[in-house]
Each structure stands twice: as C-alpha cells, then as structure tokens.
Design a protein that fits this description.
single chain, alpha+beta, 3 helices, 142 residues, Immunoglobulin-like, 8 strands
Length: 142
C-alpha cells in the first residue's frame, strides 16, 4: 500500500512538472502597472497638498508665490491662514521636482504653530537650480 501511495505521489509530481505551474504560480519578471496615458499624479498637478483631513480643515491658503533667485534656485512663499478658533500645530515640507517631474530634493518636516485666525508665512528655497516645480505638503503634527 505504501508503494502505491509513493507511485501516486511521483506521478502527480511528474505531471505537475510536465504541465508547469498554474497561472497563480508564474515566475517573474512582471510588468508594472503604469498610469493611463495623460494621467498625472496629484503631487504634479497641485502645488499645495494636505496629507490628512485635519490639516486640510485647519488652514486656508491666503496667497502663494514662487520665483527664481539670481543663482537659479526656486524660492517659494506661502501665506497660510488658520481657520481654527484655537491654537494648532502642524508640519510642512516642500518637495522640488525637475522639468521631467522627477523629485530632485525635499526639505525636512518643519513645525508650524498657527494661532487662531492668524496669517503665517512659510518660505522655502531649493538648493539646486535644477528644480523646476514644487509641492508644499501639510500634515497635522503627530
């Protein structure tokens, strides 16, 4: 009886080896999913993004501007107005992109204290003159 079970196991193994693995067991390489043609990621369409709802509801962008310094770096200035009736702490950082949309640098996260109904200015400059665009990210302080 044991030899019959062994032969059955050998036949199953040989059958699987000859047929090959099923569709769920394929070996790579696999193609990566790409964005549909013409669809641009959100961080390349919008210059100001909140990473959570609390941060989105806490501030309003009063004004923003950007320009190039004589040395070629991008300088960004954003005026944020607190919508809250109490003090609020949040963090911000700026990510800089080159002309092809690739990230070339980013600032560290900076703390920002927003007093109730007070306008605060955030300023950042790229280090590299290769930076062509930017996105400011805001989030609630953890």
């Amino acid at each position: 009886m044991r030899s019959a079970a062994r032969w059955a196991a050998v036949l199953v193994f040989l059958g699987l080896a000859l047929i090959g693995p099923g569709p769920g067991c394929r070996r790579g390489p696999f193609p990566l999913d790409r964005k549909p043609e013409g669809e641009v990621p959100l961080q390349h369409r919008e210059r100001l993004l909140a990473q959570d709802r609390q941060a989105e509801r806490a501030v309003q962008v009063a004004a923003y501007e950007h320009g190039r310094l004589p040395s070629g770096q991008i300088q960004v200035r954003i005026d944020l107005l607190s919508r809250r009736k109490d003090d609020y702490w949040m963090e911000w950082k700026v990510v800089f992109y080159d002309a092809q949309g690739f990230q070339v640098e980013e600032t560290e996260w900076h703390s920002l204290h927003l007093a109730a109904s007070v306008l605060q200015t955030v300023k950042a400059s790229s280090i590299s003159p290769k930076a062509d665009d930017y996105t400011l990210f805001l989030r609630s302080q953890p």
